[in-house]
Amino acid sequence: QVQLVESGGGLVQPGGSLRLSCAASGSMFGIDSMGWYRQAPGKQRELVATITNGGITNYADSEKGRFTISRDNGENSVALQMNSLRPEDTAVYYCYARRWAGTYYQAYWGQGTQVTVSS
Prior knowledge:
4-stranded antiparallel β-sheet; mainly beta; 0% helix
């Protein structure tokens, strides 16, 4: 099992910045990717960004150039630097980790942290 704990959410004005952090604990064996998803009210959970053990990143198109994902493999943590925030970025942000289980990927989720972008 993997436990994921997010921190860093809050209220920010449009154009502002926030940094989310996620600390992972438990067995990290086989974890090959970590990242962030978000879910706004009335919408499905969607990809924000992921990063592999080797540092390969993947971003949703709307976040490219504004958000930066980083990972500290030694500390089992992943962070998301969010700049130029927009009201439409308002959502609960979930930390995510993926383990290859031999024939399928096992996903792990944090409890989520609220990000609200509003003036």
